[in-house]
Every structure is written in C-alpha cells, then in structure tokens.
Amino acid sequence: MSRILTVAGAQLGPIERDESRASVVKRLLDLMRRANDRGADVIVYPELALTTFFPRWAIEDQAEVDSFFEREMPGPETAVLFDEAKKLGIGFHLGYAELIEEDGILHRYNTAILIDKAGNTVGKYRKIHLPGHAEIEPERQFQHLEKRFFEVGNLGFKVWNTMGGKMGVLICNDRRWPEAFRVLGLQGVEMVMIGYNTPTLNGLMFEPPHLRSFHNRLSMQAGAYQNATWVVGVAKAGNEGDVDMMGESAIVAPTGEVVALCSTLEDELMIADCDLDAGRYLKDTTFKFSAHRRPEHYGLIVETTGEVEPR
Ligand code: ING
Q1: Whole-structure pTM value
Q2: CA distance 142 to 243
C-alpha cells in the first residue's frame, strides 16, 4: 500500500531588507493557495522565510537585529497564514527567526516549525550547525553573522509522526553534516524538510559557482540516499541585498534521484507526489542499520572537540 504525500516546495525570490512582514506573508499565502489548487498536502517554505537573510549585514544595533525576529508564532502578522492553512486543510513548514524569553533571559534561534493539516504545531527545530562567524569581518564581500545573531539550537534532531509518515527538519548548513541526516535516519525518518539561504558565491575566497551548486545537490542527494529518506530542499533565491542567493530548490527521492527542481530565482512552486514507502526497500536491505552498520567497530572515540583518536 502506498502512502502518497503530495508535497509543494515554495521557493522564494529575494526579500529585501525593508520588505514588510505583511508583504511577505501575502507572497506566502499566494504560494499556499496555488499549492492547494494543485492538490498539495503540505507546503515547505525556506529558512528565514519572513525576512531578508539579515546575517549578511554588519548590524550592531540590537533593536534593529531584533526587528527581524518573531516574538510569537503565530503572531499578529503571521496568524493569517495559520488560518488559511487550516481553512484549506494543508500542512506547512516555515523557517523564521525566533526570539523567546525563558527564565527571564532572551534567546534567539534560527527556527523552523512543522504545522499539520489541522493547524497543530507538531514539531519545532532550532538550527544546530550555524555557519559563518561571530565577529564582524570587514574584509568579507558580505557578512555571515549567524554565530552572532543566533544561539545554537537546543532541541536536537527529532522525527515526528505526522501527515501519514515520519517527518524530520534540518536547516540549511545542517544538510552539509552527514551526522545531522544520520540522527534522523536512525529514527526511521521518511521525509526531511530543509529550508536554505545559500549565497552563490563564497564571501571570503573565490569558489567557482558551479561547485557551490554541485555541493548543494550533493548534500541533499547523499543525505536522501544514505538514509533512505525523501528530502525537500527549498531556497530563498535571487539577488537579495545585493548578494546572489542560489535557487535549485529540489525534491529528492530516497533513491537520491531529483524528482522536482525549481528553475528560476523567484517565488516558484514545485510539486511532487511522494510515496512515503519509496525508501522502504532501502531501509530493509542496503541501509538496514541493524544488519550492516557496525558502530562498535568504528574504533573511534569522538571527543567533544570534534577531534578523534583511535580507541
Ligand atoms: N547558508 C550556507 C549553507 O550552508 C554555507 C552557508 C554555504 C556554508 C556554502 C558553507 C558552504 O548553505 C546558510 N544559511 O547556512
């Protein structure tokens, strides 16, 4: 019996620094309605889908930094998105900057949530692999201050039983770390949703753009195949804040094959009927962890420093 989930990836074109939340939410609603018209069960938006990718700016005024964060989700400007999704009966994944007060302390995370068709928040993930740097580096063509603006996520890598399958979420740079996929894979994940904001150029040194595209696809296709899971990777794309961001949003099958791909750098919808049982044969044969994986023989003690030494 196939468990088909019709998935829409909602790639976003640029969101400029001064674009209002209301204007962005209008774009998200338009994509949601179009996805619903095309029969989607769930729509996946990018990382930081409500604002420009503000870590590219050397912003020193904390109040200005905080203007890019959401203190509530849903909040006054995003509730309409939740209402429309519930009315249409469509689930969604949304990446945003989360500002939360816990025990009187403010915390800031690069966050993504998963909402089911009934409008319940079934999962929240806070980005663990924060790339870039914490101090402003004037020599860079553009900054990448995620280490300055966000704390490392504290919710781990979780898999949630929802939408008829086992769903997981990663954010952007996480996709480059096989262990992030593997922790989800060890929990039997069947679909990983990943929003990303990835510059086409390396801000620090020359790296051929074709390599950056290749590494994006390689990371998602390898993660899919090696964990026998669907991967839905959705970009915020185009020239945003005078920095070119890659598109190439893709839906990747558990075999590692790309089944849907965006071809523009604008707001663009891609849709695929994803059989959540498509990875079953790989989980039962090639990647049957209990039969073939031998961590006890890896002979490595991975210290917290990330250095390894023979056991
Ligand atoms: N962006 C980029 C990403 O991991 C990056 C940063 C690009 C790091 C290329 C290393 C190489 O896709 C975010 N937001 O993580």
Answers
A1: 0.96
A2: 8
Mean pLDDT of 268-275: 98
**Which 8-state DSSP code applies to residue 135?**
S
Q: How far apart are the first and last CA of the chain?
A: 45
> Ligand 1 centroid vs 196 CA: distance in angstroms?
8
Helices and strands in the chain: count of H runs, count of E runs: 8, 16
Count of structural domains within the chain: 1
Task: Read off the pLDDT of residues 151-198 as tens digits, 9 standing for 90 and up.
Answer: 999 999 999 999 999 999 999 999 999 999 999 999 999 999 999 999
Q: How many CB atoms lie within 10 A of CB 22?
A: 11
Which residues are registered as beta bridge partners of 295? none
Specify the CATH number for the domain of residue 245: 3.60.110.10
Q: How far, in Å, CA of 137 to CA of 125, rounded?
A: 29
What range defines the domain where residue 138 resides?
Answer: 4-310
Residue of 172, 212, 219 to mutate, ligand 1, most atoms within 8 A of C-beta: 172
| Residues with a CB atom less than 6 Å from ligand 1 | 131, 172-173, 176, 196-198
Name the active-site residue from 98, 166, 172, 262. Answer: 172
CA dihedral of 98, 156, 284, 301, whole degrees rounded to 10: 140
DSSP element (H, E) containing 25: helix 21-37
pLDDT in tens, 61-80: 999 999 999 999 999 999 99
Q: What share of the chain is helix, strand, coil (3-state, %, to 5)?
A: 25, 30, 45
C-alpha span between 215 and 172 (Å, rounded)? 12
One-letter amino acid identity for 24? V
